[in-house]
Amino acid sequence: MIPFFRRMKCLHPAVGAVRRSSRYRPAPLLTASPVRALIDDPICIGGKFLPPHWPVTVRALMHSDGGDLWESFAHYNTDTEGTINLARDHSVGGLYSGCEPMGLFWGMQPVPGKKEGLRLRKENVETPYIVHISLMDGHVTPSEHQSNELAATIVERWYMAPGIKRIVIRENGIIGTLFLPSGPGPFPAMLDLWGMGGGLMEYRAALLASRGYASFALAYFKYEGLPGPPDRINVGDAYFKSAFQLLQNHQQVCPERVGIIGLSFGVYLTVWIAIKSGLKPSCLICVNGPVGSTVSLRDAAGRTDSFESDQRFWKFDDQGYVIFKDVSLPVACFPPERTLKLENIDCPLMYIESEDDLSCNTTESANVIEEALRAAGKSHLYSRVTYPGAGHLLEPPYTPNARISLWSIKPKKFFAVWGGYPAPHAAAQEDSWKRILGFLESNLRGGGEINSASGMKTTK
Question: In which band, very low, low, confident or very high, does the pLDDT at 2 lie, cut at 50, 70 and 90?
Fold first, then answer.
């Protein structure tokens, strides 16, 4: 690769004027705006003071909370003015192509040579991702070639806005984290439920609080402090009911404006709370999850099932990676006592469906809900959004998808196949998040009686 300034001398005579004036040309400049932003805010990236029609590479590099190094890069050509603008220009190569203003963020991958099956998830929401963005000479693959770094900048990407309160909850056996927006409230609120990966995931709840909703991320499986053994859901009806009521009764929460959001197995729990607990949530958001379960919650006698007990429905691809999709075939798999009576839903429900979901049969689940509500004369309560090419793990926007990731290491190492292709999955995350905020605006804020957050209205 000929260095940048040596190639300047080799320009065609037609651009000789550019070469002669280059001694006075400002140094190449890379800009990002804003440099501090929430994870769902777009960032405008551009470069200038470069030769016209010049090949450059833009690279993003950052560490995960676990210390793993992630990167993305894309190739661009400057315009006649010697500038690039990622919101305007098309990438001609790299890890994504086309006009993708946020491709550097959702296109991130572990750098070559890292361990297999990594998934990028924020573990500490009180710190940002710090992303080093650099402008390089030529069309290069950064991890494989040395290149001149012409310019660089750093951006911070946060899940928590300034003033958000993070409150650890360990109360009457309930384990989770409550996030409160800044100000006195009272606020509309969301109970946040993740899937069978277990643990306590806080980042979606932190982001919802940053958008004006008190949010309670609840742990119910595979987390310290919950009753054992760890391979079973050792909490039952009373646990989820108490968690909802804890949120509802908080002095800074509007008790009549509390909804629930669930992903994967969290969808089953979301709908279960709405129809079996005697509670009255204001709305439900279901993302790629089933309407029944092969695994039981703890019953009155303390009995429960191991998640591995439904392995008869697992499938494996040619590489030995597990595909969970058939576990959630409603008609084939769910015992009657674990199939939800969907006709009893009495609040607005939005179901978000990914067509390339390889972990849950989302299309059949969405159909079952739609048919049940239609038969009950409640079609007006149902909103459904479908995304071709998107996978199971629909998360807040501008974050990379993991088509395959490490699922467990004990008693045996398993890699799970989630599905989804980078560009359509990224588009689905961006659009679905706007729709989620719009749905909450319509169904929790009551037409603007509480200060409104921005967001697109969902289509019914």
Answer: very low
Task: Report the C-alpha gap between 132 and 155 in whole angstroms.
Answer: 7
User: Within 13 Å of residue 99, how many CA atoms lie on the same side as its CB?
Assistant: 6
What six digits make up the tokens of 228?
A: 């054992």
Pairing of strands 55-63, 69-77: antiparallel
pLDDT of res. 314: 80
Structural tokens at position 377: 């004369």
Does the annotation count 380 as an active-site position? no
Tens digit of each residue's pLDDT (9 = 90 or more) over 370-383? 999 999 999 999 99
Average the pLDDT over 147-153 and give the result. 91
pTM: 0.89
**Digit-coded pLDDT (tens) for 202-214:** 999 999 999 999 9
pLDDT digits (tens, 9 = 90+) for 55-64: 999 999 999 9
357 counts as catalytic: yes
Return the minimum-mean-pLDDT range out of 28-32, 146-150, 266-270: 146-150
Contacts of 229 (CB under 8 A, 6+ apart): none
Which amino acid is present at 322? V
**Three-class DSSP category at 259:** strand
Q: Say if residue 42 is preceded by a cis peptide, omega within 30 of 0.
A: no
CB atoms under 10 Å from CB of 337, counted, come to: 8
Catalytic residue among 137, 231, 357, 425: 357
DSSP 300-368: TTS---BGGGGGGG-EE-TTS-EE-GGGG-HHHH--GGGB--GGG--S-EEEEEETT-SSS-HHHHHHH
- The sign of the dihedral angle between the CA atoms of 219, 223, 228, 229 is positive
Catalytic residue among 264, 282, 354, 442: 264
User: Which residue in 392, 405, 432, 442 is the catalytic one?
Assistant: 392
User: Catalytic site residue 359?
Assistant: no
Closest-CA residue to 287 (of 171, 406, 201) = 201
